[in-house]
């Protein structure tokens, strides 16, 4: 749920900045980026609120349950072999006996009535929700009869919303894209600082970016690159790790996919910090790998 919220937040921020990014001149005064309202953004906002309400409800239910059953329940929980078991997306834990548990495919995904929950896959096929995509992949990788076709063994979400015809990324848009992307990263970082959602290390880099013109774009670029390099934390951003900036933006920004592809210059499916800097048209000398420290503060935050 948290990750989904973060994705939506990302889309929201991008919507607010990139939608009018081309016409917006550099702001003289600090202003929260979320004040610009675009229709897309409203939609994302509504969805975000709905999620938050659902999450609060879920928490209340859990607490109620705990209060009712009390200490007896705690004893039972200790016996549950699913307690420490982590299952991948599309799978849930199932207890076999007191000591054994296994991950099995999600049996039924929640019915999604909201069309905005639909997703488009790498086969350019609309699925009802990301749960249904993960579930289908699970079926096809575990010999389940509900697997509709072999091709779904590697099915994954490419973007949110129904599959549609993607307008082409025009040459002049692409030419301007690195600048807008840099601007956007800087604004996202500033926004997170305003919301006090940056760790102290990130915050220091953000303040540097505000005061030192040389570091304005580079610090934001470094921060985002470190942030994207999640699991595995190997100093390279894989295609999979690009998902959080790609999937929510594809329908808003037609140049995001070709832009991100262009970052991987040697086509080894990994984007190094130098490659990232180059495609954002930043100076190589200014880019310093500050991720070690970032990773530490990030981990201690979580
Ligand atoms: C993907 O599907 C949509 C909707 O069916 C269609 O309009 C579009 O042309 C398709 N795109 C590709 C690349 O086939
Ligand atoms: C800005 O940052 C650069 C790179 O770290 C540094 O060399 C320069 O001295 C800084 N300038 C100011 C005014 O602090």
Model regions low in confidence, pLDDT < 50 over at least 5 residues: 1-5, 12-72, 297-302
What structural class do the secondary elements suggest?
Answer: mainly alpha
Helix segment tally: 10
CATH superfamily of the largest domain: EF-hand
The number of distinct structural domains comes to 2
Instruction: Quote the distance from N terminus to C terminus.
Output: 15 Å
Gross geometry: globular
Indicate the CATH class of the largest domain.
Mainly Alpha
Percent of residues in helices comes to 40-55%
Instruction: Name the ligand types.
Output: 2-acetamido-2-deoxy-beta-D-glucopyranose
Architecture per CATH nomenclature, i.e. the level-2 architecture of the largest domain: Orthogonal Bundle
Average per-residue pLDDT, rounded, comes to 77
Q: From N to C, what is the helix and strand string?
A: HHEEEEHEHHHEHHEHH
Total strands: the figure is 7
What is Rg? 22 Å
Largest sheet, order of strands side by side? 4-3-5
Tell me the β content: 5-15%
Predict the CATH topology of the largest domain. Recoverin, domain 1
Main beta sheet: strand number and arrangement? 3 strands, antiparallel
């Amino acid at each position: 749920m948290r990750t989904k919220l973060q994705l939506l937040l990302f889309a929201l921020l991008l919507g607010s900045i990139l939608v009018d990014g081309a016409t917006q001149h550099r702001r003289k005064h600090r202003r929260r980026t979320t004040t610009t309202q675009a229709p897309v953004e409203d939609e994302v906002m509504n969805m975000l609120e709905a999620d938050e309400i659902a999450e609060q409800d879920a928490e209340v239910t859990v607490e109620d349950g705990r209060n009712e059953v009390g200490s007896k329940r705690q004893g039972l929980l200790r016996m549950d072999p699913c307690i420490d078991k982590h299952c991948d997306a599309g799978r849930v834990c199932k207890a076999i006996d007191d000591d054994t548990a296994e991950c099995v495919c999600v049996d039924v995904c929640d019915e999604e009535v909201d069309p905005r929950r639909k997703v488009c896959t790498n086969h350019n096929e609309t699925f009802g929700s990301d749960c249904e995509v993960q579930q289908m992949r699970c079926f096809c990788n575990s010999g389940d009869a509900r697997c509709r076709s072999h091709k779904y063994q590697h099915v994954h979400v490419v973007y949110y919303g129904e599959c549609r015809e993607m307008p082409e990324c025009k040459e002049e848009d692409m030419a301007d894209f690195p600048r807008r992307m840099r601007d956007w990263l800087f604004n996202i970082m500033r926004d997170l600082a305003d919301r006090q959602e940056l760790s102290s290390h990130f915050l220091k880099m953000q303040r540097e970016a505000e005061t030192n013109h040389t570091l304005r774009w580079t610090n934001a670029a470094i921060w985002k690159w470190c942030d994207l390099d999640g699991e595995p934390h190997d100093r390279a951003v894989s295609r999979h790790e690009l998902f959080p900036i790609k999937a929510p933006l594809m329908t808003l920004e037609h140049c995001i996919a070709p832009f991100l592809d262009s970052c991987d210059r040697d086509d080894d499916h990994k984007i190094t910090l130098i490659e990232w800097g180059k495609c954002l048209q930043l100076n190589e000398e200014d880019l310093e790998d500050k991720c070690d420290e970032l990773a530490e503060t990030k981990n201690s935050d979580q």
